[in-house]
Design brief:
117 residues; alpha/beta; 2,3-Dihydroxybiphenyl 1,2-Dioxygenase, domain 1; 4-stranded mixed β-sheet; 8 strands; globular; Glyas_Bleomycin-R_OHBP_Dase; Nitroreductase
Length: 117
């Protein structure tokens, strides 16, 4: 069983391109006004609408710090917060913004015993 999180977008091509090119998401399904993307089992979609929604955080989980650092490199000028350890949650994370201003987080759990799959 799985789920999909959808977001309204005014700039579908730019937003889909951002997640494909910078975070290596793949297109899972194209529909008339929506694109569903996948990143390691995480399904999320963007539907063309009159107004974009930019609330929430899209979090991409990597197996280790190296994965977060590589994502940071691919995100380039979209990064708004460089990678750092967050002791509160025992994670390593960085933040970026997509073309419409949605918050994008790349993180890795530092505790090897954490398994969210």
């Amino acid at each position: 069983m799985t789920g999909i999180v959808f977001h309204a977008t005014e700039r579908r091509d730019a937003v889909v391109g951002f997640y494909r090119d910078r975070l290596a998401a793949t297109v899972r399904l194209e529909q008339p006004d929506c694109t569903i993307l996948e990143f390691d089992g995480f399904l999320f979609g963007f539907c063309e609408r009159a107004e974009a929604d930019d609330c929430g955080i899209l979090t991409f989980v990597y197996p280790d710090r190296d994965g977060v650092d590589a994502a940071r490199d691919r995100l380039g000028d979209a990064v708004v917060e460089e990678p750092r350890a967050n002791e509160t949650y025992d994670i390593y994370q960085c933040f970026a913004e997509d073309p419409e201003g949605r918050t994008v987080e790349c993180q890795a759990f530092l505790d090897d015993d954490v398994d969210i799959e």
